[in-house]
Amino acid sequence: MDGIVYKFIYIYIYIYIYIYIYIYIYIYIYIFILAITMWPIDIYHSIMT
Description:
The chain crosses the membrane at residues 12-39. By secondary structure, this protein is mainly α.
């Protein structure tokens, strides 16, 4: 019984890790697209504030 519970816990941990990795990848891609399409000064202001 305990082994099954730990397997489910590890599965949930891996799912959360993959979700956070995908979120960070999408955020970096979005910032990269903004850096290409908009002025860098506006991006620096948006990051600082």
